[in-house]
Amino acid sequence: MKLREKKRIASRIVKKHDDPKTPYQRCLNSKFISPQSKRFLKELYKTLNPFKLRTIIDQKIAQIRQLAR
To answer: Where along the chain do its domains lie?
Structure first.
């Protein structure tokens, strides 16, 4: 959650936060990202598989541990 606003009221500080979003969602909502980049990110996001990514990460960690021995 990003901090949107922070006010001091007497001796207290009141903070207001934005709705929780992933970095991917923040990029898509940003006006500073070009439409081509947003299209690329959307296509890349569609191809991601969290279970497959986890398997690849585990394999690479195992390889690093073997090199450390």
So the answer is: 3-68
